[in-house]
Amino acid sequence: MAAYNFPGKQRESYELVEKVRGWLDRREDVVEVVDLQDDPRFYYRGDLKITRRDGTVQYVEVKSEPRYSRENTPFMAVERYSSVEKNTSGGPWSTSADFYAHVYADGLLVIMSRRKLIGWIEGELGRDPLSFEYKLVKNETYTTGTYLITRVRVKAALGIFYRDYEIA
């Protein structure tokens, strides 16, 4: 099996992140949405910066799933370690964004409170270290560690802190 190609995956994600940016930009309560993916000053802040009509500024970390739809996977792949070898945090643990979002190839957008998601995952793992399937994904130079968690389970656990939308 060929190693996962991070730069290739990153390029694939741009189209889906742009769809999320456009969808957010059309919301009544939003003044501006800025794509920060290529700005190193915001690397740990999020992929998108939202300015709302009331002046509030919020950040969204977007996980793109260009090869998966709601039909072919019930899962969210939540990266815990971007490098298992270096013990480097990944996914929602690697950002200070307000929201953590998953967008799928078919236009399903899931937006969650990043802090609530982390708290719930860590709580579940504290009770049972085998709460979630854990996958090691070999990249060209490192290995990521990712939890596979069903959207249904996350939605039930997070309640009002989980929302899904159609953006296709």
Report what the structure shows.
25% of the residues lie in helices and 37% in strands. The chain has three helices and ten strands, in the order H-E-E-E-E-E-E-E-H-E-E-H-E. The protein has a six-stranded mixed sheet with strand order 1-2-3-6-7-10. A four-stranded antiparallel sheet has the order 5-4-9-8. Strand 6 (99-104) and strand 7 form a beta hairpin. Residues 1-6 have low confidence and may be disordered.
Structural class of the secondary elements?
alpha+beta
Number of strands: 10
Tally the helices: what do you get? 3
Order of the strands making up the biggest sheet:
1-2-3-6-7-10
Roughly how many Å is the radius of gyration? 16 Å
- Characterize the biggest β-sheet: 6 strands, mixed
Spans of at least 5 consecutive residues with low confidence: 1-6
Our estimate of the beta-strand percent is 35-45%
Helix content: 25-40%
Query: Which overall shape is indicated by the principal axes computed on the Cα atoms?
Result: globular
Distance between the termini: 32 Å
Average pLDDT for all residues: 92
Strand and helix order: HEEEEEEEHEEHE
